[in-house]
User: Fold this.
Amino acid sequence: MTDMTIDPLKQMEKDSARTYNQGLTPLNPPHKSLIRLNNGIIAVILVIAAMIAESFIRGELPLAIGAITGPMAVFAVIIFTVLPGRIYRRWGYDMGDEQLRILRGYLWRTDTIVPFNRIQHIDVAQGPMQRMFGLSTLIVHTAGTHNSIVALPGLAPQDAESMRDTIKDHIRQDMI
Amino acid sequence: MTDGLPETTVHPVTQSDVDSDPAASRLSSHDTGFRHLHPLSIILKSAAAIGQNLIAIVILYFSVFDRNIVYTGLVALALSTFIITVMTLFWWRFTYQVGRREIRIKSGLLRRNSRSIPYDRIQDVSLEQKLVSRLLGLATVKLETGASVGEDGKLDALLLADASALRDRLHDYKSRITADADATDGATGLPEKQERKPLFAMDNRRIFIASLFNFSFILLAIMAAVVQNLDFLLPEEIFSLKYWASEFDEQIIINALSMSARFIWAIGALFMLVAVGLLGGIIRTFIREYGFRLDRVDTGRPGFRRRRGLFTLTDMVMPIHRVQAAIIKTGPIRSHFGWHHLQFQSLASDGSGERDHSVAPCANMKEIDAILAETDIASLSDELEFHHVHSALWWRDTLLWTAVILSISVGHGLLLHSAAFALIILAIPVVIVKYLNWCHHQYALTETHLFVRRGWWRRKLTILPLHKVQTVDIAQSPLDHPLDLSSLTIGIAGGSTVAPLQIKDIPVSLASSLREKLI
Assistant:
């Protein structure tokens, strides 16, 4: 992740006027492609569903061709082209000395802080699609009921594992 | 399908973690790395899964296959083979490792998961033996940490000897750290004569007062259930109108249908409903709270001991160090008479698995103060300065709701009947309730505690010691962006997922500075 100085996205993150994730560490760039792939699948499903719904409704009511599929196709194009970049650049994490901070969300934004000594156990997980892009998810479990599972996707596997080991050292016998 | 995939976690630490401790030798004598569960567990789990699908097969036998035993047998065979194959694959991919300070569990066919559970975080180890596993000499180890969603660690199943060795190892580790730990269980067997004055107890009069605020329609539900299940005892005609029509005099029916009689009927029905609700509340409260008594126990770790119940007596010990927060509930009428309900938010795994940690169902503030004084949770004081949240909490919702109601009433008024315009009246109670709820949403922060008030009808005051904060979230919805507002959500151990502790609609900058103080 150090040799990405030419990456325009990285440049953009450095530009203070356009810092979307408040200068935190961005996720591994392949994660953007993963979001795009996921959104693409959703987009295809949505368009197909719209076409089916339209053909059903057109049997019952007089409706212009594309009255449902058209807007849905526009929406599908948006979530495939525009959204992945925006979602990706809002993601950010920061491994502090005592706490993990995770920033996420484009429209619904969330900013979570988990103190290391509150963490109960740690998972490193990898789904089949993540494996294609060489990514891992770090999942920390706290004792809290709300938000007891905080997941940080889109990390390089070795980063996720080194983060896990850092956090593990902070878990001590201070009981909840 | 799963071969050749890169292992998610190849770990350099593992070798040094194991075996350096002599106590681990019993467990990791065969291999130093990851171990599988006992192979017999495949059969156990497959049998359970096949058993669950037996009903489906029986249904198929009678429906699709038209009682053709050959087809059904083939399908059953295919299903069993499939289940056993999957279970074998799961078994093959499920490995665990008992380290010096942690247990590692790797699992998952496609989605590989590698979990590490530090011993320090394990609250409770339990062995479970169902009948079949007892016959096979196996045992399931359940590891309970504080995390209350999902299971934390389950080894299903090991040889009983291995399982108890694992438990002993964990216990040894625990007792080395806290020599005087796990004495809480012994507290239940306290000699009765030594008992001091209870911290809080309720006599029948107090239980009756409590029950008045415990309006419950459970009786109605029970009656409905009884009618549904025992309807073969009732005469068949009871649900037919003609039967009733013949039972009543014609004149009564005509009267009943007249306007004033209907009104009286409605009032009567409402009255009955209230009476049934009250009665249900009284019965339920007495069954649950009868003989309520709260003591402080000091053997082992200090805790609260609560006994209550009419038919099933429950006896529960809550260690004080596990109390996360105090919740004081009340309502507009209840608080007028000075009654409050004190609950503790505690970890879900306490005692007999009872989730309700109510310690004073109906108490005045003085009694509550006395209970809180035993914990490290501060009570309400006069110098506390409560802050309101941003007024957008009520006017924004009000605007949205009014717009919805307005469009509905205008739409129906124009299209259906002009009387539908009157639907707009519905907006008035909405506005009032939203406003009152905003008035009662307040927070106060001291050096050590956070106080949050919510709700006008169901008033809830949460008192949270700052060192019990687990996570803090700042969330912004799209509606929050123009006003630069945000909601602060605080994760506490135990309690409900649906209604977490939240301070709603405060400016983002304020939320960030609050968070600085909370963590």
